[in-house]
Task: structure prediction
Amino acid sequence: MDDSLIFDRHAVRLHRDRAAAGVSSVSDILSDAADRLLDRLDDVTRSFSRALDVGGRGVVAPRLQARGIDTVSCDLSAAMAGGQAGLAVAADEEWLPFAPGSFDLVVANLSLHWTNDLPGALIQLRTALHPDGLLLASLPILPSLAPLRAALLEAEAALTGGASPRVSPFPELRDCASLLQRAGYALPVVDADEIVLSYGDPFALLRDLRAAGEGNAVRLRDRRIPTRALFAAALARLPVEADGRIVMPLRLAMMTGWAPSPDQPKPLKPGQFSVSLEDALDAVPDPAPV
Result:
């Protein structure tokens, strides 16, 4: 096995297979993230005719189709793909089967964070786009699930004297802009958004993660079935609000990038400015006296 791999892709697929039947129970969370991501389309003047929905789990494709965009969905899990609206295929994000220039829009909503080669996956998505096609992607970033990560580590260390990784590692926001640049996207834009999850029953948080297919797929995880005592001890360590509920941050990087095209605007090179900063400042009127 390649020691450089972070995630067990076989486990990722199994988790999504098992989640396929009940993923609708977390559709409100997935839909909230999808709506925030697709709001970026309202700021774009051009129209799109053919889109690829990557791992949308049933919430992205209907929203694109409602905008009049023909949509193909793909998912690592054949069971999850089978529940999508319209045309869907089982496909690995790390080995996409689509010809270059197949789509003018790609949307990946909370679906790329289990890939071992994220720059490579982004390059494949860029290749699948027409020149001047648009990528919209959302990716969990730090400090998503930070209280849960810390509580699990502390509880396991107290119970067993050691700890195994149980929450996926997430990048920071600044890493995401670099990812788009490395993958060759033009005009990359990355900003942060946050969904705050709130639970009266702490175990409901774990049930939602499982229902979304977000079980632990870190390759170096402990393969033994954890005891219920571990999760009970961990959830008891989570900070509680005044009303007795726990809150869990889901912080997202909202990533926008375009497949390169000769017709796109280019940034000016040094020395190409037509007006000097000094002249521009001189043209600004002095403020009126108060």
